[in-house]
Amino acid sequence: MHDTTSRPMRSARPAAPLATAIDSSLAIPGDKSISHRALMFGALAVGETTITGLLQGEDVLRTAAAMRALGADIRQEGAVWTVAGRGIGGLIEPQDVLDMGNSGTAARLLSGILASHPFFSVITGDASLRSRPMRRVSQPLAACGARITTRANGSLPMAIEGAREALPLDYDVPVPSAQVKSAVLLCGLNAAGMTRVFEREATRDHSENMLRHFGAEVTVKEIGHGREILLRGQPELRAADVIVPGDPSSAAFPMVAALLVPGSRVLLRGVGLNPLRTGLFTTLREMGAALTILDGRTEGGEPVGDILVEHTALRAVDVPPERAPSMIDEYPILAVAAASARGITRMRGLKELRAKESDRLAATAAMLTANGVKVDIDGDDLCVYGNGNPPPGGGLVVTHMDHRLAMSGLVLGLSTLDPVTIDDVTFVDTSFPGFTGLMNGLIDGAEALVAA
Ligand code: S3P
Question: What is the domain extent for residue 176?
Answer without folding.
Answer: 32-243
